[in-house]
Amino acid sequence: MDRLVFLLATGLARGAVLALFALSLVIVWRAARAVNFAQAAMAVCAVYIAFALTAASGSYWLGLAGGLAAGAALGAAVERGLMRRLPHLTPLPGMICAIGLVMVLQSGLAIAFGPEHRPMRPPFSQSPFVIGGVPVLSPYDLFVLVTAAAVMGALALLFAGTSLGLRLRAAAFAPETSRLLGVRVPRMVTIGWALSVAAAALAAILLVPTELGLNPHAADLLFVNAFAVAVIGGLDSPAGALAAGLGVGVLVSLTTGYVSASAAPLAVLALLTAVLLLRPGGLFAAREARRA
Amino acid sequence: MRTLLRAALITLLAIAATFGLDPFRNYQLATAAGVFAAVAGLTVLIGLTGQLSLGHAVLMAAGGYGYAATATAVDAAAPDAGPAALLAGLAGAAAASGALGLLLGMAAARLRGPYLAGLTLALVIALPSAANVLPLGGEQGLSAPFLPVPEALSALIAVEQWHAWLAILISAAAVTPLVLLRAGRPGLRMRAVLGDETAAALAGVRPGPVKTAAFVASAVPAGLGGAVLAVATQQVTPGGYGLAFSLTLVVAAVIGGLGSIGGAAIGAVLVVALPWLVDTAVEAVPADLGQRLNGNLAVLLFGAVVIAATLARPDGAAGLLARLRRPTPAAPTPATPSTNTER
Amino acid sequence: MHTPARTATAAALAAATAVALAACSTPADDEAPGVTDDTVTIGTHQPLTGPAAAGYSAISAATSAYFAYLNDNGGVHGRDIEYIVKDDGYDPSATQSAVRELVTEDEVLAIVNGLGTPTHSAVLDYLDEQEVPDLFVSSGSLTWNQPGVYPNTFAFNADYVTEGAALAQYAVEQRPDATICVLGQDDDYGEGILEGVETVVDGNAIAEIQTYSTANEDVTAQIGAMMAAGCEVNVLGTINGFTAMAVGTAAALDWAPQWYVSSSGGDYPTLVGYLGEDVAPALLQGMVSVNYLPFSPDDPWVALFRQINDDYNDGAPFTGNTVFGMSVGYLFAEALAAAGEDPTRASLVAAVESGELLGNGIVPLSYGPDDHAAYRSVGITVVDDGVQDYTGTVYSVDAGQVTTVEAEPVPLANDGIPQPPEE
Known about the structure:
The structure holds three protein chains of three kinds. Chain A is mainly alpha-helical. Chain A has helices spanning 2-32, 39-57, 60-81, 92-113, 139-161, 163-173, 175-180, 185-207, 220-233, 238-258, 264-278, 287-290, and strands at residues 130-131, 134-135.
């Protein structure tokens, strides 16, 4: 029982980061109908900037802000400089370009900073509170959960309640009609990319202190799991990303604790298969995406 | 018939080419032949039915494991049985990859583009775990029997050249049916499904079975490609079929030109030769920049080439060839992003 | 339609490209490829890129630095050593390609210190068929010590079973009543360490056995389980990064068990790099590990290697990997010097098998005609006050029996430049 509570708490904290990264994939999917395979490499670039700023200034928060800004700038730059120049009839050229970008960014980072892991300090303690003799969440875990929830809330407001959010969605769903209605579609796509990579950078900044340290491959597994999470939740659905993220986080934690570490990827695969067989568009699929 | 003759001619040409290559180049050629079979399967799948699989490395691995297990068993039961181990191994490879392809295809028939991509990606990540949990030898993998040069030829050719011959023949046997399939009625059905599923259904083509069948037809050559690699390296390990390799297969298919078998050949040779060429070029430059550059620069340049090639020719090398053959520019493709991008 | 004709053209083009790539070299079938009047060329495969690069890319850099030092001091028999390092990214199929290129294109005399169990396993049969000396494999698998099957393959690391047994023996002697647990990597490394522990401690007496996978950088669930099981001595078959992660995770849970770590994951300077200099000394206080190479701060070998590291390796961080890489370089130079004025593949293998190589370990090398293991005994090290040093306890492990032996460190001679044996 104690062990179950411990594993559940650990899973929730890891799941929050997964959910946030999955949300970033949902954003770029909603804005540009694209899956960005370079999301992890771009996010890690932003983390290196956050790391450098923190090291130079001594302030975690300055690094965090700088990392987010760098992520947004990188997202906009990649959309303007690369993705826009590709045909959009099929998603493949964009995907191949992104794979090329992963190679360039990761090897570039390895050349510039070396392959070593650089330890990153969390802004809050990682020692968990002990409740009834069971260690549960640490202050840092709470910070991660609160941050993830806040970002989710803010983005939900943005998409549902503001004119910018409406224009973003309109530009993605019906670009021709939106253009006729005066929406500046290209700008909306750029904004979508910038928001998405900033969110991914935030997830990576939250993740790295819980791992071995910052290195060019620090977010690789995060991307792969988050992609599975986004698909489970439904690529169009921020709520789906949240629910599936927490669910997959707990699943991985429980499988590792009760079965073995090597069973965890199989458990994720099994969950993904089961969900897709029952709901091919993901758990929270919109009706439109479910016709098939 | 013409296709078969042409296939035989190309196979003979390729075998003749092995005489011009040294052992290492023949080894690379054998590797490229294995990759070619997998990329050919993938390019037909994506190009004709629009199903984006990121997991073809796992189908190759399934073929490799199927080959290694069967060939080793036959070799142990009947040593000196000559080609029996090889043939049984190939049957095992086709069966293993075909079965996995059928399962994936049944799931794929219900899924749209990114959802299928997500499922196949998770499959690639789960491969090392599966190798640990199933009796597949864990990280060390399974070993496959070493096929020595037949005595009649041993004075003439080295073992690498013999393996290149085997690789070319297996790949030819794997890809030729794919060419026939693509040119015949099944190809038409697949294109119909790609064009408009509703219209295809009205015309009596059921999209689900067509998509599943296409997945199986794509999985078997991939599995035979895995068998080719097992013949050349006498080994199947999960590490050899990781995420990077799986994505490289997609890169090869797209760079070659989707749907084009010739493009798949170009793509396969490129992904085998390009990293090595870049590496060699980098070594030739006096590098005083230290150990960090070592290896990384090759990956960086390879990535840059992939980006540049995609920007220059989104339709791949096959599109470039078509353009060269036909001086008048092709009709402009409609550039309207619409909901059908959600394939 | 365009298809068949275009297919033919494209395939022909691809074939032509392949032909164009052909170089005109054929492998030399003399007895000493890679040896010229003034050079000896050898090669290795190492993970220089990809996730595994973090731990290991420093090794080949250190070996190269030692060879540069050696070449500046006259080389061996007047020949410079050219060390070709090929990247395989820890991917067995890339290893295949890299090693074949080294053997057939670069025509190396020997493969030296190829790194990794799954990677090197992939080329073991190939090197055997080609009769290439396969020296000082960088992994603790028992696979490399099979003189009957692989007559040209020699191990370098103490094997994992030996290390596990030595760690368990020390634990039993120091804390006879402690609860022992094992955390291991989910491959032959973790299994080897566990097997070693089980030769000393009855399998049922191990309170908790946990594994991790390198793909997932999180051991919270595993450490939680070990804590719940009341473990007091944790034997770790972990690579450095995961040792740091295990220690850090336990510290976050306010848990301070004893750590007994294999040599592949117990390198103090590397662990400090992961944990950070501020907290590492406290977290790692009392950590027990094993080693067989010179590592005491006041050891003359260490002083020499530090100097070489400063002069020839841009003053890269000096860690256990640096000592490891340079020790491999020294041992190869010693073997080459003993292989005669005009070394061949056969004379190189004979030199290693002669049993007369000394190496630079704190215990004797065990190479011989029937034994291709390098180190069959290991010394216990402990971290105290931020310094990792030998305790003086040395165990020899043979056929499941652990015995205490005396350390016999090889003294540094002639500034680390091996001399040809006296006639």
